[in-house]
Amino acid sequence: MVYLLNMSRKSLVTILAFLFIAGLQPARAEEPHKLIVFFSPSCHRCQEAKEKVLPRIEREFEGKIVVEWRDISDLEHYKSFLLLRDKYHSQVEFYTPMFYMDGAFVNGKHDMLGDLRKLISASLGKGGLKEEIADVDLIKKFKSFTLLAIVGAGLTDGINPCAFTVIVFFISFLALQGYRKRELVAIGITFIFAVFLTYLLIGLGLFNFIYALKGFWLATRVINILIGTLSIVLAGLCIYDLYKYKASGSTEDMLLKLPKPVKDRIHAVIGMHYRKDKNGFSKRHILSLA
Q1: For 196-245, how does the pLDDT look when each residue is reduced to its tens digit (9 = 90+)?
Q2: What are the backbone dihedrals phi and psi of residue 36, each rounded to the nearest 5 degrees, phi first?
């Protein structure tokens, strides 16, 4: 009996000592929260976030967050974005970059650094939410778009004064040649489709090639600077031509115009394709006789 009592005392002492030592051990570090950044390769604000904002955020919250970048041009990443937004019923305007942490979203449209700090500070007081990735029915999502929204987006994107000018000149030229209304409609639709197809192929080919370059952002900056500089120069020449025309009333001294050999060649090509009537005379020939 005494032996059993001594064994019980020893066991109790051992347990108490173990608990005391365990209590002296430092608490296990809390697992860092995940900050997911949904971005687009062609987004300048996304590049600003990557180069300036996120490095600062990672220094401020070192050890407390981990950053994961997801390119929404990748279908799987886009589907994960839609899933998280629908799951937590986010009403935040979609504007890349989109930042997600523990069930909440903010975008990078306004005060990116300040909004990101608020998001992280609010999330750190919570337990980390387990991110659940399931399948998203994109067809159903796209079918939810209203016809008015699709038509409005297409018209907004398609407004191009240069294209308006070209097609008006083109149709006017065809009407002057004597084409019937049905022919004008067919040719006009063909012209519009050809322009659409050209822009589509340029977008798929040229821009995918640019995105694949390692120095993508350097290339875009150089191109933007060159285009901006050229636009300023052309604007200055336009102002010069305006004052020149007002002073002389003649277009001969303008700088922004096609060279005379090119204009003569265009006039010659257009004149060669005037339609002829049943007697073999072109409208141009009839006008010259008159």
Answers
A1: 888 777 766 666 666 666 666 677 778 888 988 999 999 999 998 888 88
A2: -100, 130
Whether 105 and 85 have beta carbons less than 8 Å apart is answered as yes
Q: Which two tokens stand for residue 244?
A: 């020149």
- Domain count of the fold of the chain: 2
CA distances to 14, 54, 70, 98 from 92, in Å: 57, 20, 18, 9
Looking up tokens 């038509």, which residue turns up?
Answer: 151
CA nearest to 80, candidates 36, 26, 23: 36
Q: CA-CA distance, 68 to 58, in Å (whole number)?
A: 12
Query: Tokens representing 122?
Result: 């609010």
Domain span including residue 168 = 158-212
Distance (Å, whole) CA 22 – CA 121:
31
| Chosen domain end from 140, 174, 202 | 140
The answer on 164 and 76 residing in a single domain is: no
Q: What is the 3-state secondary structure (H, E, C) of 5-58?
A: HHHHHHHHHHHHHHHHHHHHCCCCCCCCEEEEEEECCCCHHHHHHHHHHHHHHH
